[in-house]
Amino acid sequence: MAETEPSYTWLAQGWSAFSLLHGRIEADIERALERAHGLSVREFSLLEVLSRQHGDVRGHLQMKQVAEAIILSQSATTRLVSRLEGRGLLRRYLCDTDRRGIYTDVTDAGLALLAAARPTHDTALRAALDQAATDPTLTSLVRTVEELRVPA
User: Fold this and answer.
1) What is the pLDDT of residues 51-95, one digit of tens each?
2) Which residues, listed in sequence order, are joined to residue 94 by a DSSP beta bridge?
3) Are 77 and 63 in contact (CB under 8 A)?
4) pTM (2 decimals)?
């Protein structure tokens, strides 16, 4: 059996801790959003992404851009969009200049649900980070997340 280089071991352990933190946070947010608003984390993320470009003069997002933004396959994104479209939270339409292009936009109902769900999301995120900070293997990662200043 080949020995693992020490730097790869530390790298793997760091990745494992990061994955653990992400999983815990996502699970806590998922429970809170589902309970209070009937939304999954992915649904919330989709509404969030679409809300950022809603009414923007640059136009709306094509389905492939949506898939990249929420980190899902195109087929999974299509299913997610269909589900939210069925609930009246977003709509799809053909591009005026390229009839092959399908765009997605959030509706007023979607914006309202997002506005109602955002405090739930943020409260669950804060609570999950506070809880994770009590785990010595996650403390430095939590601190890093808290210090990040990433533009939307």
Assistant:
1) 887 666 455 777 888 888 888 888 998 899 999 999 999 988 877
2) 102
3) yes
4) 0.84
